[in-house]
Design brief:
Strand order of the largest sheet: 5-4-6-1-7-8-2-9
Mean pLDDT: 96
Number of domains: 2
Radius of gyration: 21 Å
Distance between the termini: 58 Å
InterPro entries: Alkaline_phosphatase_core_sf, Sulfatase, Sulfatase_N
CATH superfamily of the largest domain: Alkaline Phosphatase, subunit A
CATH architecture of the largest domain: 3-Layer(aba) Sandwich
Order of helices and strands: EHEEHHHEHEHEHHEHEEEHHEEEHHEHH
Protein name: Sulfatase
Family: Belongs to the sulfatase family.
Number of helices: 15
Low-confidence stretches: none
Strand content: 15-25%
Keywords: Hydrolase
């Protein structure tokens, strides 16, 4: 009989896919994640289903698209939708969660044996508390196999060193948050992501974000050290990812490449060859649900993903050549329906909400960066055009991702790219039909009228 495998799922909160050094990020930000990448397998084309916290996590834990699990925004998962923890508990697993407990609803249905919320973890930012709670959970699991979801609250706002920390935490809460093991200066915040303008306040805020990313890395190091000390590193499947891109304009709460690209790392000694890198295949985080089920010897009733187990073991499997991502609702409850199809060359976005007058507003526009962009736009015509575009968008966007990964030049109206536009429209239409997307009739009307 196969020995059950322990599973540790570590998530960052709002860490962009290219932030870790192993994914091309700035030097010195994520030393523990970079080391983890050398010990396991890295996926360069991994995407979350939706770029906002709760629905992204709900999709991971159900293996279903948000419109199929009921959690399009910040509402509970529908009754009757199987949850990963329910299946694992039935198979004898102990289940635990550290941080982001309220972002998987309904809490009671998840049936956690151990659940430690944000206040018990230094507002989700204290590596020592994460380590202590990880050790305690492993101890209470006893002889049972276990699943532990470790959710760092970094680098979610408020960033380390930001002036608006009081907007999020009171004085007592702030006192319990340790500093990152390294703090970055604006001069060290280089290079900036290509979709952001190089302005002083943008560079300052990006440095704060990098400092918070380093503290997330400290949390990762703390829990991995516990595994080592317990002698469980060689018998535990460790998966790291971020729930969505960083909370800056043109990233989180959108459907751009940087919105959904996640830094997926998988370490499984004796199964996954250290140092492997998957450059070509597109992976969706819906794939984790069937993967974890298969690892535990379970067969899920229904899933929109596909197990990665064969690929992790080094088998030659048919590659997924494109990925679909979606967006429905911001954390403030504003609806902005978006759908996206991306392959190795092009990214296509349908903005179902864009009507030329409604304005986009989301949490990625608080802080320093968006006001700096708006102010600079008064004397910069190109930036003024970009700011106006971000506010109202257009119905369709098409980007040449190999030439323009920052999605700066919309090619949807370029006759030279009409074939790619038609191809992506058809791909999205097929996906909407196959998954029962509730907006498929509206999209069908758009495509028919454009034909």
């Amino acid at each position: 009989m196969t020995t059950p495998v322990n599973i540790m799922l570590i998530t960052a909160d709002d860490m962009e896919g290219t932030t870790p050094g192993a994914f091309g990020g700035p030097d010195g930000v994520t030393p523990r994640l970079d080391a983890l990448a050398t010990e396991g397998m890295v996926f360069d084309r991994a995407h979350v289903a939706i770029a906002v916290c709760q629905p992204s996590r709900s999709a991971i834990m159900t293996g279903l698209w948000p419109h199929r699990n009921g959690a399009e925004g910040f509402e509970p998962i529908d009754d009757g939708v199987p949850l990963l923890t329910e299946l694992l508990a039935d198979a004898g697993y102990a289940t635990g969660i550290l941080g982001k407990v309220n972002h998987l609803q309904p809490i009671d249905r998840f049936g956690w044996d151990t659940a430690v919320g944000i206040t018990g973890l230094g507002m989700g930012r204290d590596p020592r508390r994460y380590a202590d709670e990880t050790a305690a959970f492993i101890g209470t699991a006893g002889d049972r196999p276990w699943f532990l979801m470790v959710n760092a609250h970094d680098p979610h706002r408020p960033f380390h060193g930001a002036d608006d920390v009081g907007r999020f935490f009171d004085e007592q809460q702030r006192a319990g948050i340790p500093e990152p093991s390294r703090i970055f200066t604006p001069e060290e915040a280089s290079p900036l992501p290509g979709y952001l303008p190089d302005l002083p306040d943008v560079r300052t805020e990006y440095a704060q974000y990098l400092s918070s990313s380093r503290r997330c890395d400290d949390v990762v190091g703390g829990v991995l050290d516990v595994l080592d000390a317990a002698g469980l590193a060689d018998t535990t499947l460790v998966v790291f990812l971020s729930d969505n891109g960083m909370a800056f304009p043109f990233s989180k709460a959108n459907c751009y490449l940087q919105s959904t690209h996640t830094p997926l790392i998988v370490r499984w000694p004796g199964v996954v060859e250290p140092g492997r890198r998957e450059h070509e295949e597109f992976v969706t985080m819906l794939d984790l649900f069937p993967t974890f089920c298969e690892v535990a010897g379970l067969t899920p009733r229904e899933t929109d993903g596909r197990s990665l187990l064969a690929a992790l073991r080094g088998a030659d499997v048919p590659a997924r050549e494109q990925v679909v991502t979606v967006f429905h609702e911001t954390s403030m409850g504003r609806r902005y329906e978006m759908r996206c199809v991306q392959d190795a060359r092009y990214g296509y976005i349908w903005n179902g909400w864009a009507d030329g007058s409604e304005e986009y507003r989301a949490e990625n526009m608080i802080g320093l960066t968006w006001p700096a962009m708006v102010a600079a736009a008064e004397s910069d015509a190109a930036l003024a055009e970009r700011v106006a575009f971000y506010r109202t968008r257009v119905v369709e966007e098409l980007y040449s991702l190999d030439e323009d990964p920052a999605s700066l030049v919309n090619l949807a109206d370029d006759p030279a790219h009409a074939p790619e536009l038609r191809e992506k429209r058809e791909a999205l239409r097929s996906w909407m039909a196959a998954t029962g997307d509730p907006l498929r009739d509206r999209y069908e009307s758009l495509v028919s009228s454009a034909a």
